[in-house]
Design goal:
The protein is of the alpha+beta class and 422 residues long. It is built from 13 helices and five strands. Strands 1-2-3-5-4 form a five-stranded mixed beta sheet.
Length: 422
């Protein structure tokens, strides 16, 4: 490809980048105006697109002095000076536009272009002096935009000293401090501003990702909550409704009692759903054991509840209450059992809850190793977060057994409390 074709391709790419930058800025300004019109403070997402090489182009005006020398004929060998000026500006544009992409600014081609800029700046300063020395601050700016971190610290101070010495040798020692200081300042300040801007945008991206993960976690929590709440409650309502229908023809009082239970369960479900939505509901093991007795008795399953040991922490009770709720719901729905035993044994360090039935059905479709449906899988994760375990499977003597173990005192009270509220 000829140099002219490469130049045209570069010009087209620069034009496309400029049009994209202008479009991004227009969208950012429109978003800011819309936020102000609604009386809102514009968020960081509306502050505009990340900076590009166009932000550093105005600094090329520092080279207007040398360009003026060429036009006025004050520079010797104007052809060489013009070619040097054109080459420097081209290298500056190439380097600064690549400085805003980490992979590109660390590429070998970018470092080579920066080294060529340094050699060209030295040659122009020694050959012409005067206003041509302003290429040193421009070179420092390109260096600061390209080199970041520790490498910049090893280059910035020597570059400023080099510019000052070269100015004193090639032009005047009176100008050496200003050129050296300008080179140091343009190098360090540019690097600091661009590094800070990049860090802010990375932190913003990390914050957005954390917010997205928090939303996903809350959705999962709420779906589990609804499953645990509605699955159990609706099963009890259905069972008691069937019992009321069977009893209505021969024992009206018993049927009315079942209907009263349905009303009570429905009201309690409404309360729990409201509390679940606000995130403040806590479970109670005693309450869940009482409900389990009622639900099992309504389906002609004999409930046997045994509880021994010291009182448990509220967070541990809440988690065990969830296990009782889920296990009894599965017994009522699927097991076709005649007897269900619920045992709570609290020892010095750990507490064990066992729910065993003598049914012939499978409580939940098996979908994962050792644990069945969505409810038990969710409970497995909750207990694991609290330092416990949950196992479920066929019992040796027949039927199905769900066993949960937890520390008497939760390993991480804050995590367990959060799960219990869920």
């Amino acid at each position: 490809m000829s140099w002219w074709a490469r130049a045209r391709r570069g010009l087209r790419a620069a034009g496309a980048a400029r049009r994209q930058w202008k479009a991004d800025m227009a969208r950012a300004k429109a978003a800011q105006k819309a936020a102000h019109a609604r009386g809102e403070t514009p968020t960081e997402e509306r502050l505009g697109p990340p900076p590009t090489g166009f932000a550093l182009l105005p600094w090329l005006l520092l080279g207007l002095g040398s360009f003026s020398n060429l036009l006025q004929g004050d520079a010797s060998n104007p052809l060489i000076g013009g070619l040097g000026l054109l080459t420097f500006n081209s290298l500056y544009i190439y380097v600064t536009f690549r400085a805003f992409d980490r992979a590109k600014r660390e590429a070998v081609s970018t470092r080579i272009a920066l080294a060529l800029m340094g050699l060209l700046t030295t040659a122009l300063a020694l050959g012409y002096g005067g206003s041509w020395l302003m290429f040193f601050p421009l070179f420092g700016l390109a260096t600061g935009a390209t080199l970041r971190g520790r490498l910049l610290g090893r280059v910035g101070v020597p570059l400023a000293a080099y510019a000052a010495v070269l100015t004193g040798v090639g032009d005047s020692w009176s100008n050496a401090p200003s050129i050296g200081y300008g080179t140091f300042l343009s190098c360090m300040v540019t690097a600091a501003i661009l590094s800070l801007s990049e860090a802010v945008r990375q932190l913003r991206a990390a914050r957005e990702e954390l917010a997205r993960q928090a939303v996903e976690k809350e959705r999962l929590r709420f779906s589990r909550d609804l499953h645990d709440l509605l699955g159990h409650t609706l099963s009890v309502i259905v069972v008691k409704s069937e019992a009321a229908r069977r009893l209505a023809g021969r024992d009206l009082d018993a049927a009315l009692a079942q209907i009263g239970d349905i009303e009570s369960v429905g009201r309690q479900a409404l309360t729990e759903i409201r509390e679940a939505v606000t995130g403040y509901r806590e479970g109670s093991l005693a309450t869940e054991l009482t409900r389990a007795r009622s639900a099992l008795a309504a389906t002609s399953v004999e409930p046997v509840v045994r509880q021994s040991g010291a009182p448990l922490a509220p967070q541990t009770e809440a988690l065990l209450g969830w296990v009782v709720r889920e296990a009894v719901t599965n017994v009522v729905r699927h097991s076709d059992a005649g007897r269900c035993e619920i045992t709570v044994e609290s020892a010095a360090e750990r507490v064990r809850l066992t729910v065993t039935d003598d049914g012939t059905g499978t409580p939940v479709p098996r979908q994962a190793e050792g644990i069945g449906g969505t409810g038990l899988k969710g409970l497995t994760e909750r207990l694991a977060a609290a330092g416990g375990t949950l196992t479920a499977g066929p019992a040796p003597q027949g039927g199905f057994t769900v066993t949960a173990e937890l520390p008497v005192e939760p390993a991480d009270p804050r995590a367990v409390a959060s799960l219990a509220e869920h």
